[in-house]
């Protein structure tokens, strides 16, 4: 605030007592004060005009359709190496999930082995053996003991969520149909977006919601092709229970993925995998001992069963190790959109291995999902706090590459310019 002090002449000048010369001298300060006042009002007017321009620009920016930003991008700015890398890595994750599904299907159909907790226990044990020793040799607050001392209860809940998500979705196949599982498993995406909004403060634009709808349309096309081909298999003995298990598992997957995105972008991948391996081993081991002792005792071990268990463990271990890398360069929502093609890869393998009936709807659904995925990544999401946070040593990629440039633009628009008293801006 600029404080202007005006000098008062404070003297009543009588015409018969003051000469013309003294009167002129007394008027001089008034002329100086008038110039000062005019200068100050000029600066204040300039500041007001700039603030109005800033508010107008901000309102126009906020009211612009998200498709405006899509139109302003050139094709070479959309189809970048970053997008290509995200698509390839995402489809690699889908192939790994496909591998877990195929090995589990062979174990169940050809060898009557239904032990989802045993399979999960093997994966969590591998994570424990690899990453917990790495955390043990870290220094200071990154050490295993320090992490457990400060955040043990958070990772305990994360371990429970991850274990039960895997178990509930696999268990649902015993009660409901394949079609229901495929459709309801997509519930993870809206839950994930909601959790990202409230927990990670991620802000989505209309184009992201449209892209998600397109991807879900592709998933629906795939399910329709399954129904047309007569692959609506499943016992259907208790459809309501099965559907509830799928929805619960999808919600827990969303919780696990949001925690994973926060951890790998703000802490480290090793910490996340180490803690999931530690608590996942404990809880999956307890649940396996309670629920699957009889099933494990019935297994007739041979080289084929051992090979299938090994293949499942390799695919699942690779999935857990690669997913944080993809989440780091994209987001948990983007990763789950790309994973919608996992069932398609399973079907493609089924055409070769199980003589499935081919349908062009599968190709169409794959194209629709990829188009939706590209559209989702064409406009970056916005995290308000990310632009204001400085880079911190030892933190793994606190904001993705696509978000970083966009956050700078948002910061420039939402931060008013400072005006200093001498009139310079």
Automatic annotation (TrEMBL):
Name of the protein this chain belongs to: Info solute carrier family 35 member F2, like
One Pfam family, short name: SLC35F
Cellular component per GO, a single term: membrane
Function as written in the Swiss-Prot or TrEMBL entry: Putative solute transporter.
Transmembrane domains' residue ranges: 83-104, 116-134, 181-200, 207-227, 239-260, 272-291, 303-322, 334-354, 360-379
Keywords assigned: Membrane, Transmembrane, Transmembrane helix, Transport
Top-level taxon of the source organism: Eukaryota
Annotated source species: Erpetoichthys calabaricus (Rope fish)
Major localization listed first in the record, in broad terms: membrane
Homology family: Belongs to the SLC35F solute transporter family.
Species lineage: Eukaryota, Metazoa, Chordata, Craniata, Vertebrata
């Amino acid at each position: 605030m600029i404080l202007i002090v005006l000098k008062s002449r404070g003297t009543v000048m009588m015409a018969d007592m003051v000469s013309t010369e003294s009167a002129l001298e007394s008027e001089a300060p008034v002329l100086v004060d008038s110039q000062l006042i005019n200068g100050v009002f000029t600066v204040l007017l300039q500041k007001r005009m700039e603030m109005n321009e800033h508010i107008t620009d901000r309102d126009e920016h906020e009211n612009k359709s998200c498709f405006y930003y899509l139109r302003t991008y050139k094709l070479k700015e959309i189809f970048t190496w970053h997008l290509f890398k995200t698509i390839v890595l995402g489809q690699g994750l889908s192939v790994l999930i496909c591998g877990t599904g195929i090995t589990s299907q062979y174990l169940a159909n050809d060898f009557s082995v239904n032990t989802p907790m045993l399979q999960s226990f093997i994966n969590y044990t591998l994570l424990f053996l690899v990453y917990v020793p790495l955390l043990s040799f870290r220094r200071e607050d990154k050490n295993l003991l320090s992490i457990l001392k400060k955040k043990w209860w958070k990772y305990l809940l994360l371990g429970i969520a991850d274990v039960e998500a895997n178990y509930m979705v696999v268990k649902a196949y015993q009660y409901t149909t394949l079609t229901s599982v495929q459709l309801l498993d997509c519930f993870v995406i809206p839950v994930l977006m909601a959790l990202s909004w409230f927990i990670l403060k991620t802000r989505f634009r209309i184009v992201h919601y449209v892209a998600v709808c397109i991807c879900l349309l592709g998933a629906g096309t795939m399910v329709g092709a399954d129904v047309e081909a007569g692959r609506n298999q499943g016992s259907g003995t208790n459809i309501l229970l099965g559907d509830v298990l799928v929805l619960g598992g999808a919600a827990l997957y969303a919780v696990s993925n949001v925690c994973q995105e926060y951890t790998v972008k703000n802490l480290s991948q090793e910490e996340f995998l180490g803690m999931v391996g530690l608590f996942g081993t404990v809880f999956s081991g307890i649940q396996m001992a309670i629920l699957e002792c009889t099933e494990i005792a019935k297994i007739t071990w041979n080289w084929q069963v051992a090979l299938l268990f090994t293949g499942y463990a390799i695919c699942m271990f690779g999935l857990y190790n690669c997913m944080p890398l993809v989440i780091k360069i994209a987001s948990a929502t983007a990763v789950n959109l790309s994973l919608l093609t996992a069932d398609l890869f399973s079907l493609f393998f089924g055409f070769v291995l199980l003589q499935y009936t081919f349908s062009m709807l599968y190709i169409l659904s794959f194209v629709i999902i990829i188009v939706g995925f590209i559209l989702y990544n064409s406009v970056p999401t916005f995290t308000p706090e990310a632009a204001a946070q400085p880079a911190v040593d030892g933190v793994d990629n606190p904001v993705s590459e696509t978000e970083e440039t966009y956050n700078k633009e948002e910061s420039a628009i939402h931060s008013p310019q400072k005006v200093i008293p001498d009139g310079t801006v």
